[in-house]
Design brief:
Blueprint lengths: L4 E5 L4 H12 L3 E6 L9 E5 L4 E2 L9 E4 L12 H23 L7 E7 L11 E2 L9 H14 L7 E7 L1 E3 L5 H10 L12 E2 L1 E3 H13 L5 E5 L5 E2 H11 L11 H8 L4 H4 L3 E2 L2 H5 L9 H9 L1
Parallel strand pairs: 1-2, 1-5, 2-3, 5-6, 6-8, 7-14, 8-12, 9-11
Antiparallel strand pairs: 3-4, 10-13
Helix pairs in contact: 1-5, 2-3, 6-10
């Protein structure tokens, strides 16, 4: 059932801003939870995750929630404090939403919660991760496991829960594609490490369409991978970006040692990879507009 009113956390971020426009174009009323209240076409209600405060008016007449809030994984070095922030920004914000609905009347029927393919850790060339795979033992996997455990509590309130494990999001506005395109534009593009690590990517339009699909289709429940059906190697990804920009790749791969010296533990995000399946969301009837990488990159860079 199409919700009339959707509340989005992280609504001004890369995914949230695109999803807001997509939902509003479909006639859905959208509001945000933000650090500061703000009236307007998309009203924002205040919440403070650290102090555990939330404006309960945000939930009035709200049919569904899309929970995207969380500190960026790749924005800052992974110090001990930053790791704690990455974890708590997800778990505590989810717990705050849960408590807001646990102790007060509401009409929320659906929660679609962001998650991440970091749950699976990193795999070899032949390993394909599905939603049935167990969590890895890495830092990111532990974050996602705790995050999803908090989200699972919504089901105890009789709310339909969908968790979308998001891959590498391709967008003009930010994220991996923007950063990888910079050196290619300057003629300095090169694969990272061996270049054979898999990148499970998704065009931001398809990702937002997937969130909308989850909101509208009551049959969807549980975990779905938010990735395209065609993951590619880092080498193939770099070549696709170069082709879209009419550039050539002539430099050798950037050595793994250099990346680790520059990025520390966070280098795992680029020197390792994972090949993640989109079969479950396809079986649920979702169809991608950008299943082919070159088509997706051309759309965003040309």
């Amino acid at each position: 059932m199409i919700p009339k009113r959707v509340l989005i956390t992280g609504g001004t971020g890369l995914i949230g801003s695109h999803l807001t426009q997509l939902l509003m174009a479909s006639g859905v009323e959208v509001c945000h939870l933000s650090r500061k209240a703000k009236p307007g076409t998309v009203p924002a209600y205040a919440w403070d995750v650290r102090s555990g405060k939330i404006d309960h008016q945000a939930l009035e007449e709200t049919d569904a929630i899309v929970h995207l809030a969380g500190a960026g994984i790749a924005e800052k070095p992974w110090t001990k404090a930053r790791k704690q922030e990455i974890l708590e920004s997800r778990t505590r914000s989810t717990a705050l939403l849960y408590d807001a609905m646990r102790y007060r009347p509401h009409q929320v029927k659906t929660v679609v919660c962001a998650s991440a393919i970091g749950y699976y850790g990193f795999g070899g060339d032949e390993e394909i991760f599905t939603e049935a795979h167990p969590a890895a033992k890495s830092f990111l996997a532990s974050v996602v496991r705790a995050w999803e455990a908090e989200a699972d509590k919504f089901q105890g309130l009789g709310i339909r829960l969908v968790k979308i494990r998001i891959g590498i999001v391709l967008s003009q506005q930010g994220g991996a594609l923007k950063e990888m395109a910079k050196p290619v534009r300057w003629g300095l593009g090169a694969p990272l490490a061996g270049g054979n690590q898999y990148m499970s990517w998704i065009h931001i339009t398809d990702l937002c369409r997937m969130f909308k699909y989850a909101l509208e289709n009551d049959a969807l429940q549980g975990v779905y991978n938010g990735v395209s059906p065609n993951p590619v190697t880092n080498k193939a990804f770099t070549r696709a970006v170069a082709a879209a920009l009419n550039k050539k790749i002539w430099l050798p791969p950037v050595p793994q040692l250099v990346l680790r010296l520059l990025l520390g533990e966070m280098a795992d995000l680029v020197v390792k990879g994972s090949r993640v399946s989109a079969d479950r969301i396809l079986q649920a009837g979702f169809r991608f507009e950008f299943a082919d990488l070159q088509q997706a990159v051309n759309n965003l860079l040309r």
